[in-house]
Sequence to fold (115 residues):
Amino acid sequence: QVQLVESGGGLVQAGGSLRLSCAASGSIFSSNVMGWYRQAPGKQRELVAQISTGGSTYYTDSVKGRSTISRDNAKNTVSLQMNSLKPEDTAVYYCNVQFGSKTTWGQGTQVTVSS
Fold:
């Protein structure tokens, strides 16, 4: 069974930065995709960024140029560096890992950006 533990959320002023980290443990295929989703109050959960084992990345348009996703395959960790944060980035951020037909979610970490 795979478990994900997130850290790094918090309260930050607009224009500030945060780094979210997620550590995966358990039986994980060597080929997988790790990513970050977010869900704001009253909105659907959306994909923010993801990265494959080989390093291919995807960013949703609203965070392109402001965020960088990275991973350490040896440690099964993924991080999301978010800069120039905006109030609309406020949400619960969830770590996610996908391999084969399996998808696992973290418990979520709150990011609040004040204006």
Remarks:
- Residues 67 and 82 are 4 Å apart (CA to CA).
- The longest strand covers residues 91-99.
